[in-house]
């Protein structure tokens, strides 16, 4: 890579008088980085040069290219920002300063989860976008080149950076509409996170390449002839599909029982025309030639995506029974589809200006509003990931105003998006004139009307229950939590106590464990912990997840004998021993467990609060054990107490099936007063899945309570010897 290649790329769109700034920046950076070498072994100047070349491919202005070349100079070469300002001007120095501040943020910790330092990093980066978007484009290009040279780092750091890239940087590029960066970041991340799956998909694509290319060539010939006959001029080409996108589609299709050959948009055409009317004319020609597939047409010209993307999408069956996806767009739409809001800087160097630019980044203004409202970095990160980075649906107010919400949003999310007070007073909703439940999932084009109370009313705590799906957006949940946090402390403590006791019954935890749970969540006072549960700061689902996470992964021991594949528990400090789960307490992964050494059957695994363990006289026979990663299913007994009615069992088993849990045994015992006790033995993966399932069953009409129980026959017998 050389300066000449960068200048050649820049000449394609920059006026000649702007090129000296780029040359001067390169000369200064090359001298400053003289003698410095990256971990890959390359001269350090190669990195800023590659970053600048990526940005030149997006047709950024000269100031951005200069800042890209200089972005590591202040930090790595001890050159003050004032020197850059004196030589290159305030615009370039400000971009370098913004990028340098982002560059000083810590690398992601080696974990699949984004930790607080990373949340704060993202917060600073996204807020910097409000000052000058170009800072973040430099950061995205910087991350792309780092991903291309990731081999130089340790495997642990490779996975950590790839995970952060897939969770944060690729969605950010998507939200900014930069397809060119998005697909590369996704594919590179996928390659390091799931190398076997990556190569499997790549091989599937390669095996069918010749067949696809022949089909696309024949299709283009037929379509070109028909368009020419109709007097329409168009550029037609095959549309490439990147590996991570195909993998996601394969996963979705496998869940539906389909295979790789059923993915219709592996075969795809892109058609570029001159005007919007030509787009619709070409669509008419395609639908007259081939039969359109139902439900596969989208008009993103009349209804653009939030990132500015516009095109017509359709899918047809052509030449026999071959499915084909087609995208139709103008050349200008194509430029914006490839470069997103980066296309805005294309106009800065000339006379023309993109008048719709502000509309395309309206979500940024929303982001800054949330930044002012949300106090914690983790809370801000949750808002961004759930409300900004995922697919959107567009709905209308009764007055015709458009509101964009994340896919899966509900009328409650809509109400809180319109106004906080409207959400707090919401008592019902109408969609397209019909009453719907508050957890109804909105679709594109829905007209939503909120029914609100006239007097004082607050939200329901059920709206915060993640299992009931009342709210999708972090923004709505934050507003609901804020309302409850302002209520009387005594009321929150009492409500929190009720919720905690119910969850502890679900999980089979003794009441004496409450103080331990409070400390687990880093609360010094039990009342503070209960108040946090009461206003929604801590959810019962988080309690189940936290308990599950308490079981550490097994340490690596050299030359250890191999474990049987069915084993899910490891006895600490002892060689390979036969273990089996106690029937009296039915432990599942996430439970705190202990082993009991029997005389003839190895080690029996009990929950630590099991009656038999607590009352065991021979304490020396108890040994420390821990869960190991496993795909096994674990039997657990639950009891559902309810008012008897027609359809009760159907409603319970439907929820169990939806959670992917198997029912191994079911018994029904009538009780006094038209009540019934339904006992189930379920096969579940872990405590978190069990908690989620029981919370949903608890919400069924007529259910009085759900609790976890042991086997009645063995509840108060000594552990097997």
Polypeptide structure, described:
Helices cover 46% and strands 16% of the residues. The protein has 721 residues and is α+β, with helices and mostly antiparallel strands. It has 5 domains: 3-200, Orthogonal Bundle (Hypothetical protein af1432), CATH 1.10.3210; 203-341, 2-Layer Sandwich (Beta Polymerase, domain 2); 391-485, Beta-grasp domain (Ubiquitin-like (UB roll)); 489-549, no CATH class; 634-709, Alpha-Beta Plaits (2-Layer Sandwich). The strands form 6 sheets. Strands 1, 2, 3, 4, 5 and 6 form a 6-stranded mixed beta sheet that branches. Strands 13-15-14-16 form a 4-stranded mixed beta sheet, with no helix packed on it. A 4-stranded antiparallel beta sheet has the order 19-20-18-21. Helix 26 packs antiparallel against helix 29 (687-698). It is globular, with a radius of gyration of 30 Å. The termini are far apart. Mean pLDDT is 78; it is low at 104-115, 345-360, 371-377, 551-567 and 712-718.
List keywords for this structure.
single chain; 721 residues; alpha+beta; Hypothetical protein af1432; Beta Polymerase, domain 2; Ubiquitin-like (UB roll); six-stranded mixed β-sheet; four-stranded mixed β-sheet; 29 helices; 21 strands; 46% helix; 16% strand
């Amino acid at each position: 890579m050389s300066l000449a290649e960068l200048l050649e790329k820049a000449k394609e769109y920059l006026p000649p008088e702007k090129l000296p700034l780029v040359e001067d920046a390169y000369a200064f950076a090359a001298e400053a980085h003289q003698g410095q070498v990256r971990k890959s072994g390359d001269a350090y100047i190669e990195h800023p040069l590659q970053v600048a070349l990526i940005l030149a491919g997006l047709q950024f202005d000269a100031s951005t290219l200069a800042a890209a070349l200089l972005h590591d100079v202040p930090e790595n070469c001890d050159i003050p920002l004032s020197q850059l300002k004196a030589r290159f001007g305030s615009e370039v120095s400000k971009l370098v300063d913004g990028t340098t501040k982002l560059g000083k943020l810590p690398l992601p910790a080696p974990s699949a989860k984004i930790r607080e330092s990373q949340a704060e990093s993202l917060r600073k980066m996204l807020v910097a976008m409000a000052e000058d978007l170009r800072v973040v484009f430099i950061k995205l290009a910087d991350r792309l080149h780092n991903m291309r040279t990731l081999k130089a780092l340790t495997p642990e750091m490779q996975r950590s950076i790839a995970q952060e890239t897939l969770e944060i940087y690729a969605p950010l590029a998507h939200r900014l509409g930069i397809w060119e960066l998005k697909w590369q970041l996704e594919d590179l991340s996928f390659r390091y996170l799931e190398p076997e799956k990556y190569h499997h998909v790549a091989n599937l694509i390669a095996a069918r390449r010749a067949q696809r290319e022949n089909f696309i060539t024949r299709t283009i010939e037929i379509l070109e002839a028909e368009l020419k006959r109709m007097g329409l001029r168009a550029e037609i080409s095959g549309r490439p599909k990147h590996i991570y996108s195909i993998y996601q589609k394969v996963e979705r299709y496998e869940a539906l029982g389909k295979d790789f050959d059923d993915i219709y948009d592996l075969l795809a055409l892109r058609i570029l025309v001159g005007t919007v009317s030509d787009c619709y004319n070409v669509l008419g020609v395609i639908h007259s030639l081939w039969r359109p597939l139902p439900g596969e047409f989208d008009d993103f010209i009349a209804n653009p995506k939030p990132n500015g993307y516009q095109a017509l999408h359709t899918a047809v069956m052509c030449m026999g029974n071959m499915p084909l996806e087609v995208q139709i767009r103008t050349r200008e739409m194509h430029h914006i589809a490839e470069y997103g809001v980066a296309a805005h800087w294309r106009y800065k160097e000339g006379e023309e200006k993109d008048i719709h630019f502000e509309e395309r980044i309206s979500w940024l203004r929303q982001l800054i509003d949330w930044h002012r409202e949300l106090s914690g970095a983790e809370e801000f990160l949750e808002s961004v990931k759930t409300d900004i980075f995922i697919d959107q649906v567009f709905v209308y107010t009764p007055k015709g105003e458009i509101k964009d919400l994340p896919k899966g949003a509900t009328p409650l999310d809509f109400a809180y998006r319109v106004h906080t007070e409207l959400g707090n007073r919401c008592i019902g909703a109408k969609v397209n004139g019909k009453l719907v439940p508050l957890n109804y999932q909105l679709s594109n084009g829905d007209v939503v009307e909120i029914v609100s109370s006239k007097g004082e009313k607050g939200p329901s705590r059920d709206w915060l229950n993640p299992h009931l799906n009342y709210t999708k957006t972090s923004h709505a949940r934050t507003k609901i939590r804020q309302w409850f946090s302002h209520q009387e402390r005594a009321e929150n403590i009492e409500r929190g106590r009720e919720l905690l006791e119910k969850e502890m019954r679900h999980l089979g935890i003794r009441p004496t464990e409450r103080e331990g749970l409070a400390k687990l969540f880093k609360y010094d006072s039990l009342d503070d912990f209960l108040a946090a549960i009461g206003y929604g700061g801590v959810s019962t689902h988080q309690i189940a997840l936290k308990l599950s996470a308490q079981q550490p992964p097994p340490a690596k021991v050299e030359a250890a004998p191999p474990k049987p594949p069915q084993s899910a528990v490891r006895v600490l400090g002892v060689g390979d021993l036969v273990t089996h789960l106690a029937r009296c307490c039915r432990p599942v992964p996430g439970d705190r467990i202990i082993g009991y050494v029997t005389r003839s059957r190895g080690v029996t695994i009990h929950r630590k609060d099991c009656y038999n363990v607590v009352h065991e006289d021979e304490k020396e026979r108890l040994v420390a054990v821990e869960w190991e990663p496993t795909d096994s299913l674990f039997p657990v007994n639950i009891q559902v107490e309810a008012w008897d009615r027609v359809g009760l069992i159907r409603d319970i088993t439907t929820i169990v099936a939806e959670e992917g849990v198997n029912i191994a045994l079911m018994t029904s015992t009538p009780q006094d007063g038209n009540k019934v006790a339904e006992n189930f033995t379920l096969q579940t993966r872990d405590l978190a899945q069990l908690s989620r399932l029981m919370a949903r069953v608890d919400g069924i009409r007529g259910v009085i309570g759900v609790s976890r129980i042991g086997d009645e026959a063995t509840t108060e017998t000594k552990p097997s010897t």
